[in-house]
Design a protein that fits this description.
The structure holds 2 protein chains of 2 kinds. By secondary structure, chain A is mainly α. Chain A contains 11 helices and 2 strands; from the N terminus they run ααααββααααααα. In chain A, strands 1-2 form a two-stranded antiparallel ribbon. Helix content of chain B is 68%, strand content 1%. The longest helix of chain B has 27 residues. The chains are: A mainly alpha, B mainly alpha.
Chain lengths: 293, 325
Amino acid sequence: MIFGVPTQALFGQLLIGLINGAFYALLSLGLSVIFGLLNIINFTHGAQYMMGAFGAYFLLQWAGLGYWWALLIAPIVVGVTGIVLERTTLKRLYQLDHLYGLLLTFGFALIIQGLFRHQYGSSGLPYSMPGQLAGGQNLGFMFLPNYRAWVIVFSLAICLTTWYVIERTRLGSYLRAATENPTLVQAFGINVPRMITLTYGFGVGLAALAGVLAAPIYQVNPLMGADLIIVVFAVVVIGGLGSIMGSIVTGFGLGVVEGFTKVFYPEASNTVIFVIMAVVLLVRPAGLFGRAS
Amino acid sequence: MTATAGEYVGAAAPVTTGMPLAQVAAFALMTAVLVAAPFFAYPVFLMKALCFALFACAFNLLIGYVGLLSFGHAVFLGTAGYAAAHSAKMWGFRPELAILFGTVVAASLGVVIGALAIRSKGIYFANITLALAQMVYFFCLQAAFTGGEDGIQSVPRGFFLGFLDLKDTLTLYFVVLAVFLAGFLLIYRAIHSPFGQVLKAIRENEARAISLGYRAERYKLLAFVLSATFAGLAGATKALVFQLASLTDVHWTMSGEVVLMVLLGGLGTVFGPVVGAFIVVALENYLAHLGAWVTVVQGAIFVVCVLTFRRGVVGELGKLLGKSL
């Protein structure tokens, strides 16, 4: 017993919190990367997360390709659809107020979610976890399902790799430079429009990757990303838009906070992240890791 | 990637003082059509459209004239609906008091949310209003008085001002029309007052407005609260019309719908939100049996509007006629 709560329940919620946090981190990371270079909030992100999960489902149903293939193929395919979206439509809006980008991506989210809902209804489709990750470990104080441990470790690895690439490599330095001053970077001979396109594709791919990871845990559902994305928006505001490490740390951190809230004050578990956002806005309007503009 | 030389949201808004002749004519036409409409069309549909038209006008006050995109405006519509429905059903408030109470609740909520959100701009502002609205949504989902998934049903309509029996559909219609016209004219007045001019100045160049001695944040907050108040007026009226206050009106999809209405009708135009609201409500009426396709059509309208039709219906019409409508 810790604070009057059974240890098992506490660690159980900690685990769920870490799982949710892994998804928050992956999704807010993608949003942050996209925002950094394109200056738009990608409202389609939730729909693209859903497309990742459906990608895994389709690969299994139509091509007989299992989870591991899905983990590789689905993000690439969804990322390519993102690239097409950017090349054909988003690109035309860069000279306008950034709010138009938000409205456009919101429109795409409605279209995609509507089409999937028309085809597959709003009840979930089951997707079983890979056999290699079935079962779990008894840690003495709690039972740890292997798949959940894998999700946490894998998404953490992806997040840290992304952070490393952006903050510590030459490619990342181009990216950061283009975020600061795209015109100057272009003058140095770097193809900024292509970089923007690939960045959008990468961010979308991260969302789809999160979708594949989520498929065995939550069911594959056309609306699985619709409400989640709003929480992720709050996570991004708390962490500070455009901050890579900020997204990762706040993503995992808020997942855990949410998990603990479920133990100690369940009524507030849906709202705790939004409350934290309000407090952060009062104290640090630029977010915990953001720079004041 | 800077937007300095670019096109701003709501940049089509005219800078005028006094009601130009074209707008007087358009207003007379609109009023005449709305007075005659219940004798030709289904009154309940018209009342729904009128409530949404007022909601859209309130929203337009913020995006069209201050350039702030709130993505959580449904909260004011929905909360006012709950407050009006609860006060009419549980406390026996007369309809005009219930509407007033709902509006006041929305205004107070506007002060709180506005104070938190107004310090940020552009995308941040949209994000923050959306997240705060979602928080209120979860509150409404769990609070006891809202009735959760069921909402507050069979709200009594009663007698407006004590003698107008709102059970009569036509009487109800003209009360709703009066509320709409009052709200419309008040918003028009606010936009075309010196206060409204300062708002436009802040939209165009906030730093310069501040350097001229205007306290931009106060102006923006006041505009936000005004917008929330009129959205609340629309929501409270809607609750009495449908005798129902439900979660639909607080959900973020509703916030998206009002953006759609204003975008389609014409950002920063006087009559655009009304036209947009009627088109969207009519569309939903005709497409209702198609289920998920409604969402697809709405999304497609968003995409088309943003890519090729940024002035909206009324904006394009105004450009065609060479008048600001």
